[in-house]
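Table 4 source record.
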Amino acid sequence: MIVIFDPEGVLIDTESCRFGSWERMALEQGIVLDKTFFNQFHDASDDKILQAILRGSHRSYSVPEKMALLTRRGDIFDELLESAGDSILLPDTTELLQELRRYGYKMAAVAAPVLPGRLLGHTTVRRLIEFYSRMDIIPEQLEDICEKSGVPASECLVVTVSDYTAKEAEARGMHTELCERGMTWLRLWERLSEFIN
């Protein structure tokens, strides 16, 4: 069996990096971004978030300028992830992954809308995850992990806080564990044990 993590909310919390990247990009445009306002767009696409932020500007932006701002925001996000390092790991993440490895389970990561290696690449747990996908969207990433690992979908357990990821995994015949954001290591281990024992 392979345990496939959708890391955001399960292994890591990048919310401060996410807000910080939008906030800094907005400030560079002379726009002050309020966190309460920003939180309304938690599940929105980057395009929708950008449109909402730019409403606070005194000028209009062309499509190429908007694309450049999205690229800039992504660059800032990467900078913040790199400087954050292990501080984005949720409590006991390292112990959870080490315990799974001790029991001989393979581990993989998927992530939407970014590459999973980008999220975990600056943390010490990156070496505990054996398979990362470089595909663009979750359905492709899930299929790519099966192909890379040689594990059939029926022997995959996807651990996520995302309804979308869970539905895509189930549609492919994978087991899913839909968790609460920031679940403790002990509770998560109990839930995983039901599948992997």
